[in-house]
Amino acid sequence: MSNEQDIYEEHVLDHYEDPYHRGELDKATHSHEADNPLCGDVVHIDLKIDSEDKIQEAWFSGDGCVISQASASMLIETVEGKSLDEVRNFTAEQMLGLFGPKLTPNRQKCCLLSWRVLQSAIHSPVDDLPPDDDGGPDVHFGGPSLGEES
Amino acid sequence: MKTIPTLSTCTPLNDSELADLRDQFPILSRSTASGAPLAFLDNAASTQRPVCVIDAMSDCYQQYYANVHRGIHTLSEESTEAYEQSRKVIASFINAASEREVIFTSGATASINLVARTWGDQNLREGDVILTTIAEHHANIVPWHQLCERTGCRVEFLPLKKDFTFDDETVHQKLRELRPKLFAFTAVSNVLGTITPVKKWVHWARELGITTLVDASQAAPHQPLDVEQLDTDFLVFGGHKMCGPTGIGVLHGKENYLDSMPPFLGGGGMINRVSVDGFETADLPDKFEAGTPPIAEAIGLAAAAKFLRQIGLDRIAAHEKQLAQVADEGLRLIEGIEVIGPSMSHKSGIVSFSIDRVHAHDIAQELDHLGLAVRAGHHCTMPLHRHLKKSSTTRASFYLYNRLEEAHRFLEAVQQVQKKFTPSGRKRSSRPQD
Ligand SMILES: Cc1ncc(COP(=O)(O)O)c(C=O)c1O
Predict the structure, then answer these.
(1) With an 8 Å Cβ cutoff, are B427 and A13 in contact?
(2) How far is residue A54's CA from residue B119's CA, in Å, rounded to a whole number?
(3) Which of B44, B76, B182, B361 satisfies CB 3.0 to 4.6 Å to B66 for a cystine?
(4) Any ligand 1 atom below 6 A from CB of B263
(5) Is the confidence at residue B133, as pLDDT, over 80?
(6) Beta strand pairing call for B375-377 and B393-397
């Protein structure tokens, strides 16, 4: 009857219920938080970046829909051990690929929230003032906004 | 004891009538992306249109369309006649004293903004109060915030009781105590479904000399409206929630109000004469309809109003309430689900709810997978959601073409969704390779 992929496939639900490194990192060197104001999803990421510019440890916390939280877990799991250059080169498209099931533009925003936060976190040393632009890289996605509906 | 809230003596829609009715909405026979048959329960956001509305607009474009007013040729005269005839139909739909009191706008939002920018700017001063309710749509909040920014007046919000209704005593007291210049409130909440006692509240305001504006966006499609009897100074609604086109709405204003207000947008159509030195404003209703109006849309809206009248608005209300009651009472029996709204005796066919620990967008997404179109989010009522301490809710809203079977399907689907997202001891592993 359907050729639609199940967005909530087992792998996604597993990450939602049993997330990788959900919590806060005591000795974070870098961290950042952002939300999707219209749907209320929030993701916070803490990183420990070593002297060779490698991510030694990554943790996330937050609140929101399955897609925003499961994708954050997948991203955090992937990113440990990666160099900052590798993180910078990790595109939004690759993030959507990592998540798996194809998402409509509306739900892509949920999936890309943690990716946005990570891209900002690597430029946000703890104890420093946050960067002026806290919205992360300036990327635009199609589709109407999710929350502003009658 | 269960009472089905049928209104007065109306006969409910029977099965064969409903089947005929559904045939007039071709879109209802499609399926969703997953292939499941569509159950359209997003009517509070916008309804679907029957063939007669689509035909009325397409006839206009195919047979007699031209710009209205002052055209000295056949098509323009026919279009003008059809456009003005539509105004008469709408005047009669809400029992307005005269069609001069019916202004076509682009929607309820535009109607409220028109009042704020004209009557509001003319009459509100620093320190004045606008009273409204915490359950308003942003369309009935933001224009007043903007007016506050321009004039220094302020907005006060009536709170909700625990049972999602308003306390009449508080309303009366606030009206006496605050002496607002304007009391702007919704006839039916687009989230809670709560029906406000428009006639009583307007009467209290009238006794105190307070101007009233009623947002009838969620009332006009579902219940008979009589502006003479309600005695509102301003009443607004849009076309797209009542089987009509998008891009058209109505502002009803008492003639003495509209007469004393300055015009809003300036341009063609709203003037009697223009010179290099200035202009002379046209009479009602043209005064508020600058530019080429939504001609085919007005004609479509009139067709929608006739369609609803023919079925009977009291019968429509009774039908949707019957379905909403099944959904509402069914949800209340499920553990872990909260219905966000009063009991059926105080509300329309709107059923909002939340499931413990499940995000509204996941609920809506999964319901769509099962064929049910509902809405999730804050429904343009952020202050209400904050008041309720909810980041978002999910809303099912019924209309005349929904079937009892769809209310049952909805209940089953919600339970399926709840089960899907309830923690069940899952363990993460690397993604299976396929
Ligand atoms: C209660 C209420 N008021 C106002 C509006 C805005 O109406 P419109 O889309 O006609 O501008 C809506 C719906 O969107 C509504 O539900």
Answers:
(1) no
(2) 63
(3) B76
(4) no
(5) yes
(6) antiparallel
Q: Please state, rounded to an integer, the average pLDDT across all residues of chain B.
A: 95
**B217 CA distance to ligand 1 centroid (A)?**
5
- Tell whether B49 is covered by a domain: no
If asked whether residues B26 and B73 sit together in one domain, one would say no
Residue in chain B lying closest to A100 (CA): B431
Count of domains observed in chain B: 2
What residues 363-392 of chain B have any CB closer than 8 A to a CB of chain A? 365-366, 369, 375, 377-380, 391-392
Q: Which residues pair with B37 in a beta bridge?
A: B31
Name which residue sits closest to atom 7 of ligand 1, judged by CA.
B108
Distance CA A100, CA A84 (A): 23
Domain boundary among B251, B276, B309: B309
Mean pLDDT of B32-61: 97
- Pocket lining: B238 vs ligand 1, CB cutoff 6 Å: yes
Residues of B within 8 A of A146 (CB-CB) are 361, 377
pLDDT class for B12, splitting at 50, 70, 90?
Answer: confident
Alpha carbon distances (Å) from B89 to B84, B86, B224, B245, B246: 9, 5, 14, 15, 18
Residue A138: pLDDT over 60: no
Local confidence band at B408 (pLDDT 50, 70, 90 cut-offs) = very high
Residues B115 and B261 grouped into a single domain: yes
Catalytic residues of B: 380
Regarding whether B358 and B277 lie in a shared domain, the answer is no
Q: Is residue B253 part of a domain?
A: yes
* CA of B105 relative to ligand 1 center, distance in Å: 13
Report the chain B residue with the minimal C-alpha distance to residue A42.
B391
Is any atom of ligand 1 closer than 6 Å to the C-beta of B118? no
Is residue B297 domain-shared with residue B358, that is, in the same domain?
no
pTM (predicted TM-score): 0.91
* ipTM associated with this complex: 0.81
Q: What's the domain count of chain A?
A: 1
Structural domain including B237 reads 54-309
Distance A114 CA to ligand 1 centre (A): 33
Backbone conformation region of residue B253, classed left if phi is above 0, alpha if psi is from -120 to 50, else beta: beta
* Per-residue model confidence as pLDDT tens digits over B63-120: 999 999 888 999 999 999 999 999 999 999 999 999 999 999 999 999 999 999 999 9
* Same-domain status, B321 and B289: no
Our CA angle for B161, B163, B166, nearest 5°, is 40
B190 lines ligand 1 (CB under 6 A): yes
User: Pick from A2, A38, A100: which is nearest to B431 by CB?
Assistant: A100
Does A3 reside within a domain?
A: no
| Residue A83: CATH number of its domain | 3.90.1010.10
B182 to A94, B205, B208, B214, B383: CA distances (angstroms) = 54, 9, 11, 11, 19
> Would you place residue A135 in the very low, low, confident or very high pLDDT band (cuts 50, 70, 90)?
very low
The whole-number average pLDDT for the span B365-384 is 95
The reply to whether B208 and B328 lie within a common domain is no
Q: Looking at the structure, tell me whether residues B364 and B290 fall in a common domain.
A: no
**Position in ligand 1 atom list of the atom nearest CA A150:** 14
Range of the domain at A26: 10-121
B18: left (phi over 0), alpha (psi -120 to 50) or beta: alpha
Do B156 and B267 lie in a common domain?
yes
Q: Which residues in chain B have Cβ-Cβ distances shorter than 8 Å to A13?
A: 420-421, 426
Torsion angles phi and psi, residue A121, rounded to 5:
-60, -35
pLDDT of residue A4: 63
Give the pLDDT mean for B259-288. Answer: 96
Among residues B166, B184, B200, which one has the least CA distance to residue B346? B166
- Using pLDDT thresholds of 50, 70 and 90, give the confidence band for residue B355: very high
